[in-house]
Fold this sequence. Notes:
heterodimer; A: mainly alpha; B: mainly alpha; globular
Amino acid sequence: MENLLNIFIKSIFVDNMIFAFFLGMCSYLAVSKTVKTSIGLGIAVIFVLLITIPVNFMLEKYILKKGALTWLGEGFADLDLSFLTFMVFIAIIAAMVQLVEMVIEKFSPALYNSLGIFLPLIAVNCAILGAALFMQEREYENVIEATVFGVGSGVGWMLAIVSLAAIREKLRYSNVPDPLKGLGITFILTGLMAIAFMGFMGIKL
Amino acid sequence: MSNQEKEPMFSAKNLKLLTDPFGNNNPITVQVLGICSALAVTVKLKPAIVMALSVTIVTAVSNVVIAAMRKYIPDRIRIIVQLVIIATMVILVDQFLKAFVFDVSKQLSVFVGLIITNCIIMGRLEAFAMANKPWPSFIDGLGNGAGYGLILIVVSFFRELLGSGTILGFPVLEKLGVYSVGYENNGMVILPPMALIFIGLIIWIQRSRNKSLVEHK
């Protein structure tokens, strides 16, 4: 239990997807204009991570890893399909995103309209594939650990985008130099927020 | 159709496709695509160059493939088709890097895989290759990959120079004798946040030189 809590906190604050690895920056910069839409996108990302990470973990463990196919019989013991990782992961993610899109369209048309083009783009949100690849690289022991890591990363991502959106809403009242308006100041803001988040780096739980 | 074929290979239009992404239509600073990987691989110059080349190749080749089969892709499943083609190219690049430059491949870690979700590639496929012929698409892919690479190389040049005092691993500052007058490496520059601030500064410089890019809200 303690271990799981550790992974959860670590993936939110220390290994924050945005501030430590810059994953999912495209939609992070584009959708962070108002708090409301950014909360919607954040929830969608958490949801997609919650579904895709365990599925990808199982695939990795029982099909892709070297020697993972042993359960099929002795002859499969040295088979190494790990070069197919990217293809399998991205296919799962794309399929899941399609599913989430259909669910949201059915149950919350308002959210669907405000997310617009960015919903299908979650499929190419680096945070999702990035989390799957980090999950593979860090070799979590079981599905539960991997899932906790996935949800934690999603929560961290949402935290980042919502706080940036809040700052940008306030920023409308300040006098930013013309060439820095919009994109430029957003980059610098994110940089400053990342410096603040580095304060969590030394934490040992 | 027919007059398109008579067009010379490097007509003014095609040349513009190649050069535009370097300046006024840069994928990173103007189109805001592909930021994710741009920031994480720019601590040192060498991985940045490898990354820039990989992305350029993947963008150009998958642009050509998609442009060639654009009339046969059903609209509803086009994203999955595009992803599969990009993923194939990335697997090739990944295996190539592992075989020939293993140390760089280790440094780039997950970011080679993340080329798949690099928005530049997806964005160019959607915006250009789905509506154009293979040759212009190839040029467009090449130009955008190179424009992306340009920013990567500029950022990583300064980060390596200021952060570690080297260029491509060669200790330039030490040879120039800057340390003897009390200069010290700026450890801050190696840390991730500075990459963001550097790109912010590049955007600032670019937009003050070209006022038409300024966003008015």
